[in-house]
Amino acid sequence: MTKISRPSAKKAQQSQEATNPHSPVVDFGADKPLHLDSGVSLSPFRIAYQSYGELNADKSNAILVCHALTGDQHVANVHPVTGKPGWWELLIGPGKPIDTDRYFVLCSNVLGGCLGSTGPASINPETGKAYALDLPIITIADMVRAQAMLIEHLGIKQLFAVIGGSMGGMQVLEWASSHSDKVFAAVAIATGARHSSQNIAFHEVGRQAVMADPDWKEGRYLEAGTVPRKGLSVARMAAHITYLSETALHNKFGRNLQDRQKLTFGFDADFQIESYLRHQGTTFVERFDPNSYLYMTRAMDYFDLAAEHGGRLADAFAGSKTRFCIVSFTSDWLFPTSESRMVAHALNAAGASVSFVEIESDRGHDSFLLDEPEMFSTITGFIRSAARAKGLLPS
Amino acid sequence: MSVNVHPRVDFAVIASLVKPGSRVLDVGCGDGELLELLQNTKDVDGRGVELSQKGVNESVARGLSVIQGDADSDLKYYPDGGFDYVILSQTLQATRNPKNVLTELLRIGEKAIVSFPNFGHWRVRTSLAINGRMPVTKDLPYSWYDTPNIHFCTINDFVDMTKEVGAEVESAVALNALGERLGFNMPWGFWNLFGQQAVFLLKR
């Protein structure tokens, strides 16, 4: 008999965050439906967000941070579920490259997420139960539409900057394309204007792992009181490999054995890398909703900015007055430099102002979350010159 | 790629040719020194392309809009007439296809400003004629086998190429080793012998 996987205390806390978060929320009622790319309207819906620093008198110093696939709005504060520091505290805070003494920094949980914004774990008002797979498919553009409504709600006419990496970078590009007048400067890191076939492939492996877990219960695990722990854990393990690089794995783990002197001739985690991945998988389950993982990965897969503009990426940025900064990393094979270069070339063709930096790093896709001094100096220089151009700093 | 390591005597001349407030693309902008000079003194809307990643990163940290790219292969991504001036300073001789690059400069810019070391300078001629050696001078410090400068030309050669691509020379300046302008109105042949560097302002 298969052992049923029940929620842990921490997991219960994550579920709690999905419906009753430790973040301010804005509820958009029936009068403000969100028109989704899928053709349906979502109403009502909720956006949870965190903010840091003070909005200035003319509301011109706001920087929106867009989070990645499994990120959330807790960008620069202790995480309510994990107790860990914010995921971008190296970059954002008082005196940091994005200085919260100077800027009002905002980060919202994306639509379809699981830390307080409407997502598959939220209660469907029509049924009184969690949406699960009854939530319409959410796209990157839908996430951005919801963020734009939040910005409007806060009375911000134009964001000084939008910044994000990976899926967050996709949102940055979407913002700059579909709301260009609301974006003064855009920083897109370790991202692309589309999800590649290889990336869709990895996501499909992850989704199939979740859905193959008997505890997934066709998405209705919250009502069944189960957690598709193994499925989501395997999905995370596979995905995590794509965030690193061969060099990084080799340097960190090599063929080192885990707490043992010799091979066990079995299927235990003999190697450190196995143990590490298992740990990544199990800790992820505690803080993330499995259905939300399905929705997030789908949103990335569907993203293709050129396709939205007749196949010509430059047309996505036609007439843009936004200042762009594109950053890639040499060892990132999930969003290789060629994807960023394609964006930079399209911006050139559109006559937009663009900086494009490739940073030497052997730490793979996750470099954007790590201590990368060259990335920090790039962002510092870019933000400073944009602030001068906008009159936020003396020229 | 900027391949001249010495104080850039051509920068002041280039800056004097640029009208204030114009749109400028600097191809091979190095660490962004010229673009910064043009932004500060001419209030230009400046963009840069640079082959070396180090140069790009330094430029962006200065707050300049610079992308990593290659003059030979990446100029095709720029729209026709997108800039008032396209600058190619000390980079022409390092391109694989200088004629094609010059054509692209004049497609992208209303005007092109090109500066390059003159291989017709008497010291270069002397090095070959007397010593029988490829010249290694203060301004051209590379040995033949490791030089990025694969397409040297003389002022006369360059003038010929401008005719081939249908460009009009609006003005030209030759500089001596100290960066001083050589006498105005001298024939090309004089400049070709005594000019160490040349700066050309071209238009379509």
H/E series of chain A, N to C? HEEEEEEEEHEHEHHHHHHEHEH
Helix content of chain A: 25-40%
- CATH class call of the largest domain in chain A: Alpha Beta
Give the terminus-to-terminus CA distance of chain A.
71 Å
Oligomer: heterodimer
**Number of helical segments of chain A?**
11
What's the SSE blueprint?
The complex is a heterodimer of chains A (395) and B (204).
Chain A: H1 9-19, E1 25-28, E2 34-35, E3 41-42, E4 45-52, E5 62-66, E6 92-93, E7 98-99, E8 104-108, H2 140-153, E9 159-165, H3 167-178, E10 183-189, H4 197-212, H5 221-224, H6 229-243, H7 246-252, H8 272-287, H9 290-302, E11 323-329, H10 337-349, E12 353-359, H11 373-390
Parallel strand pairs in A: 5-8, 5-9, 6-7, 9-10, 10-11, 11-12
Antiparallel strand pairs in A: 1-4, 2-3, 4-8
Chain B: H1 10-17, E1 23-27, H2 33-42, E2 45-50, H3 53-61, E3 65-68, H4 71-74, E4 83-89, H5 98-108, E5 109-117, H6 122-131, H7 155-164, E6 168-175, H8 188-194, E7 197-203
Parallel strand pairs in B: 1-2, 1-4, 2-3, 4-5
Antiparallel strand pairs in B: 5-7, 6-7
